[in-house]
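Quiz preparation item.
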């Protein structure tokens, strides 16, 4: 079968601005959008996509942007990665949908087998597929509740778990995720995250004190026998790429095991090669009972998964878990293509190299700019937290100014953080070094304007 590979790796890997930003065709689309879409649906950029691949995104006016966001950590293997396009196209030609609950197919099983083998731990595992990260998180909680017979869910400050009712309740931040969308789901309890940079008594006390707060919540306030699971992002994504203080996650895992509480690692953002390992849990030798994946799983198609201990996953009754589209065959084919791309192109090592390059560039910018408070993250998931020089006070304005400079000069960046003061970098792992260096040159110029 042949097909036009318009947006594949043959897309010229250069930054190119040929109109004002946004250009005339993007502005036309913006006008149509304003009349057709609710105004609360906002986009980070005013330019409209026409093609993407490697490390560039070309807009409808033929401007080429360097992509440092991967559509929020989704196109880890690049946009239109050849194996993803080939497998998804072949599947499209066979059948688009049967509903796995009605008539099953092989691709679903193959994705489950891969996730069972790749996720941390050598224990017997099972995988169920879904469409979105929020759906995976919701279903991980369902599995944890039915397996333990307990109601409560413990989550952390700065957490992001999605936008459906339960996932939104589990998310920490009011604006924009929760404001006036309540009442929220019951039995969700929050405890401090071990966030070294902002820990009141200093980073050295962070792990022990945050752990103390968790044990106090579970043992004194809730009672361990009421707690089904603790849900944690091994590196908090939307919260600002917060890497928990060393040792914290291991203490949490041991505590959960002692009390029969299930540990759920939400790896929707960190998973599937992003941090230079298949899963961020591996950096701390953490073996969670359940693990959620989505974003990077299927090379841009919507697919999500809960992978976990066989005894936990088998506890749900027949027909209790599923969804009409869950584990769509085209998305499953795409996921198998994404796994191939990661393995055949050595993308785990590539993620680590990209991380080293980004940290080096950011450190060099920090040497001549007083606003970078901390550089952190792992692999191709790196952030800079910006502060008022000489303080740890969040500097939202600097993030806005640098982001705008990047955008106007052909570099797409993302922001994050509870205080909106974090620049986060999540380039596709297919981006060439020259493009990355060009992008960080633009970023450096952005900092110089402050
Ligand atoms: C993005 C994200 C989600 C939600 O995923 P959706 O596909 O947007 O529902 C959940 N958890 C984490 C850690 C995320 O980064």
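Solution:
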């Amino acid at each position: 079968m042949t097909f036009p590979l318009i947006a594949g790796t043959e897309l010229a890997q250069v930054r190119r601005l040929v109109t004002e930003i946004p250009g005339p065709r993007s502005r036309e689309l913006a006008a149509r959008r304003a009349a057709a879409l609710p105004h609360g649906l906002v986009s980070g950029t005013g330019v409209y996509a026409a093609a993407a691949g490697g490390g560039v995104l070309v807009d409808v006016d033929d401007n080429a942007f360097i992509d440092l966001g991967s559509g929020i950590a989704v196109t880890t293997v690049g946009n239109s990665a050849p194996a993803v396009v080939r497998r998804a196209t072949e599947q499209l030609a066979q059948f688009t949908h049967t509903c796995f609950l009605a008539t099953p197919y092989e691709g679903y099983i193959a994705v489950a087998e891969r996730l069972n083998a790749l996720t941390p731990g050598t224990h017997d595992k099972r995988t169920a597929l879904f469409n979105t990260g929020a759906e995976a998180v919701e279903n991980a909680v369902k599995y944890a509740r039915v397996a333990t017979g307990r109601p409560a869910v413990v989550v952390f400050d700065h957490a992001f778990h999605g936008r459906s009712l339960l996932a939104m309740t589990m998310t920490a931040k009011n604006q924009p995720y929760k404001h006036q969308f309540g009442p929220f789901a019951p039995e969700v309890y929050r405890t401090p995250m071990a966030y070294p940079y902002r820990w009141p008594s200093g980073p050295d006390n962070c792990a022990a004190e945050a752990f103390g707060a968790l044990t106090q919540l579970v043992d004194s306030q809730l009672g361990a026998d009421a707690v089904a699971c603790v849900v944690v992002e091994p590196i908090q994504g939307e919260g600002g790429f917060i890497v928990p203080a060393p040792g914290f996650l291991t203490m949490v895992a041991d505590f959960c095991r002692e009390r029969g509480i299930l540990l759920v690692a939400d790896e929707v953002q960190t998973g599937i090669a992003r941090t230079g390992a298949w899963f961020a849990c591996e950096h701390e030798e953490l073996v969670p009972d359940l693990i959620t994946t989505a974003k990077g799983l299927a090379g841009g198609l919507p697919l999500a998964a809960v992978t976990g201990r066989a005894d936990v996953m088998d506890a749900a009754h027949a027909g209790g878990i599923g969804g009409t589209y869950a584990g769509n065959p085209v998305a499953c084919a795409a996921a198998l293509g994404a796994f191939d791309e990661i393995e055949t192109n050595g993308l785990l090592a590539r993620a680590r190299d990209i991380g080293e390059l980004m940290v080096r560039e950011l450190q060099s910018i920090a040497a001549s700019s007083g606003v970078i408070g901390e550089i952190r993250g792992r692999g191709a998931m790196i952030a800079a937290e910006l502060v008022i020089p000489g303080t740890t006070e969040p500097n939202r304005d600097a993030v806005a100014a640098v982001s705008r400079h990047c955008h106007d000069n052909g570099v797409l960046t993302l922001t994050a953080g509870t205080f909106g003061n974090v620049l986060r970098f999540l380039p596709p792992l297919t981006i060439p070094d020259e493009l990355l260096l060009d992008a960080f040159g633009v970023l450096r110029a952005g900092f110089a304007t402050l």
